[in-house]
Amino acid sequence: MTDQLDANAALAQRDLRHIWHPCTQMHDHQHVPMVPIVRGEGPWLIDAQGRRYLDGISSWWTNLFGHANPRIAAALAEQARTLEHVIFAGFTHPVAIELAEQLVQITPPGLEKVFFADNGSAAVEVALKMSFHYWLNQGHGEKTRFIALTGSYHGETLGALSVSDVALYRKTYAPLLLTPILAPSPDAYEAEPGESPEQVATRRLEAMRILLERHAHETCAVIVEPLVQCAGGMRMHHPSYLTGLRALCDHYGVHFIADEIAVGFGRTGTLFACEQAHVAPDFMCLSKGLTGGTLPLSAVLTTQHVYDAFYAEYNAGKAFLHSHSYTGNPLACRAALETLAIFRDEPVLERNRMLSAHLAKRLASLRDHPNVADVRQRGMIAAVELVADKATRRDFPAEERRGLRVYLHGLEHGALLRPLGNVIYVMPPYVVGESEIDHLVDVAVTGIARAVKDD
Known about the structure:
Oligomer: single chain
Cofactor: pyridoxal 5'-phosphate
Order of helices and strands: HEEEHHHEHEHHEHEEEHEEEHHHEEHEEH
Number of domains: 2
Distance between the termini: 33 Å
Strand order of the largest sheet: 4-12-11-10-7-5-6
Main location: cytoplasm
Helix content: 25-40%
Number of helices: 14
Strand content: 15-25%
Radius of gyration: 22 Å
Pfam families: Aminotran_3 (PF00202)
Structural class: alpha/beta
CATH topology of the largest domain: Aspartate Aminotransferase, domain 2
Number of strands: 16
Keywords: Aminotransferase, Biotin biosynthesis, Cytoplasm, Pyridoxal phosphate, S-adenosyl-L-methionine, Transferase
Family: Belongs to the class-III pyridoxal-phosphate-dependent aminotransferase family. BioA subfamily.
Shape: globular
CATH architecture of the largest domain: 3-Layer(aba) Sandwich
């Protein structure tokens, strides 16, 4: 046991000597443990000491079918022996071709062209640039702005941050960012007394209409995360907002960008969130679950109409200007193909519906908790809003870091829960069973009790 403990500590020490981790104040690791994971097994992560942690957040919302999934691993091994990478300018390969064909088949109708990139932020960059460049090629260079929702998050490269509404990021990097036009979110949590989520959506659509009336002439696109604003606190809205937004974008002549990076591939109960509103965007950004959480890959799907605006003789200067060294990487594309095959071969969405129902049943008791203002769920995404005062919805002061207490409690009790501020959420891999959902909820409930207790 001593050797195992030493192995855990030794890996943590080696890590902290050289690695700078994302989304982290590294000083925290003087008192917050660095957890070295040496193996994955289904929905579980296993550290060097042999301790098991149920991955309640799918390792940043990427993992669909479990860690070290044997089907995806076997496909990757075969692909690695065949073709690991090839330049994607002037060259192609069967795996990317097949993946593009399948993505066109399963996404909303009208999305006919696929542009591959490396990660979610890159996909958003592609969509923003492609929308702007489309209007430029059409003789509308005055369209240079984008409309995003309050509380939105679309990534951390400069373009993606420019259409995000995260106060800390905007405060820090404001001199480097574009200034978006912010429309009020249709977040159902912001409902007036007696107002339904659909009524909130209707009210917010009117606010969007007013903005488009004023700014459509200078606006390239509206970008939204359909149904769930994930990093913004798992804020959820009614599908009718997307239906209305599609109509508004058509009426005012701006593009509709659907950022399905986190909500795509079954997270919200349908394969893609846009399906629940019966809409097709002009651009759909995909990543995270696209490869089942095994390798970085993203895709932007768009229409033939958009593609045609770039299709011209070389000297016309209309070609789209964007590239990544690993665009269309065969290994990542093969992982994505195997992920899509699992969706075809197994009743994934049907099983998710049963798991979602069980999760909802288990979380229901928290609705009466004196420090819980809201329990919300959309498919395999569920969130609990912690507050200092339920009646007024007064937040706990951010500096108290109540959510961190839940995270540390989770590690102590074999669960990876990584709250967003004071929002405790679960977004597990689809291979969990009911007993594992029970474990996640039990740990979350006891962690909440610990977090809201005054020191």
